[in-house]
Design a protein that fits this description.
Helix content is 35%, strand content 40%. By secondary structure, the protein is an alpha+beta fold. The radius of gyration is 15 Å and the shape is globular.
C-alpha cells in the first residue's frame, strides 16, 4: 500500500460545516481506521482551518475514493484539496530513520 497525503483547506463556511458534520466525519474515519496512517485538523491560533489526512491506498484513485466519501468532503468543507504520494522515512512515528534500518 502507498501513502497519500491530503492537504485540505477549509472554505469560508468552515466553522459551521465542521460543527455540523464533525460526528459523521469522526464516525467515518473510525469505521475506516485501517486506511489512515494519521489524520487531524490544521489550526491557526487554535482554530481549525483545514485538515491533513495520510491515507493508505493501492493507488491514488483508491485513496481519493476514500476521501470522496468523507462527510466533510461531501459537505463541501474543504475549498482546496491537494494530494501527494508520501514516503514516511524518518521520525518518531516510523521508528527513527528508515534508511538506517535498511543497512545504509
Amino acid at each position: 500500500m502507498t501513502l497519500f497525503l491530503f492537504h485540505c483547506l477549509d472554505g469560508d463556511d468552515g466553522a459551521r460545516l465542521r460543527l455540523e458534520h464533525r460526528d459523521a466525519h469522526l464516525a467515518y474515519v473510525a469505521a475506516h481506521m485501517e486506511d489512515y496512517a494519521v489524520a487531524g485538523p490544521l489550526k491557526s491560533d487554535g482554530v481549525p482551518v483545514g485538515s491533513v489526512l495520510v491515507i493508505r491506498g493501492a493507488d491514488e484513485a483508491a485513496a481519493r475514493a476514500r476521501l470522496a466519501d468523507d462527510p466533510y468532503f461531501l459537505a463541501g468543507l474543504w475549498r482546496e484539496v491537494r494530494v501527494h504520494e508520501f514516503a514516511a522515512v524518518a521520525g518518531e512515528w516510523v521508528g527513527g530513520a528508515t534508511w538506517l534500518r535498511e543497512g545504509g
